[in-house]
Every structure is written in C-alpha cells, then in structure tokens.
Amino acid sequence: MNNQVRVIRFKVIHRLFHLFIMVTFLIQAVTGLSRLLYPTSWGKAFTNFFGGYESVTTIHSRVGMVMLLGFGVHIFYILLKVEWKALRQSLFSPNSLVPRFQDAVHLSQQIRWFLGLGP
C-alpha cells in the first residue's frame, strides 16, 4: 500500500511558464554567445546551426522581445495576485515569495552542508 502524499507546488500554467522562461533563456544564451564568440570554431558552428550570423542575430532579438513580453505578463500576473487591501500580510506571509530572515538562515545552512561544514 502506498501512503505517500503528493504535494503539487505549482499549477500547470506556472510550470509551463517556467518552461517558457527556460527555453527562451537558453536560446538567448546560445545565440548571444555564438554571436559574441563568432571568431572561435564552436561559435561559428553554433552560428551556422542557426543559419548564419544575420539569422542568429534576428533569432536573438526576436526571442529577446518574446522573453520581455513574457516578463511583462508575469509582472501583470503578480500585480493581480497581490491582495492590495492587506498588502503587508500579502507580501510577508509565510506563503509569500518575498525572502524572509528564515530563508537566509536556510541558505546559510545549505551552503555549510554543501561545503561539508556540518548541519
């Protein structure tokens, strides 16, 4: 018998948006680096994979605009989710994404654990 509880942290729309951000970021990184390092052999290989220098420049700028549009949609979504009448509680509740002191403590503990310095 399976007694595990499944916790769903993000809705499907949130997971799709994160996928969108990852894909656009990776395209931006690859096209940007291939343009920047075009004189190198791998820079030329990536540039040629995307259809040449002009093509990679076009892809980079258009994906950048799509990424900025996604950022604008994200900001609009966040502004809709804020409870304006209870702003302080909305921003600083335990379920808020605003970092709290306890988050800094957890980060410190995590870094110490990674470095083998104890719990």
Summed up:
Helices cover 70% and strands 0% of the residues. It is mainly α and 119 residues long.
Task: Provide structural commentary.
- This protein is mostly helical and 119 residues long.
- The protein contains five helices and no strands.
- The chain has helices at residues 12-36, 41-49, 53-81, 87-92, 101-114.
- α1 (12-36) runs antiparallel to α3.
- The longest helix has 29 residues, at 53-81.
Task: Supply the key terms.
119 residues, mainly alpha, 70% helix, 0% strand, extended
Topology:
Blueprint: H1 12-36, H2 41-49, H3 53-81, H4 87-92, H5 101-114
Helix pairs in contact: 1-2, 1-3
Report the principal-axis shape.
extended
- Measure the end-to-end span: 33 Å
Beta-sheet strand percentage?
Answer: under 5%
> Can you count the helices?
5
Average pLDDT score? 88
Listing every helix as H and every strand as E from the N terminus to the C terminus, the arrangement reads: HHHHH
CA-atom Rg in angstroms = 21 Å
- Which class do the helix and strand fractions yield? mainly alpha
Number of strands: 0
Q: Helical content, roughly? A: 55-70%
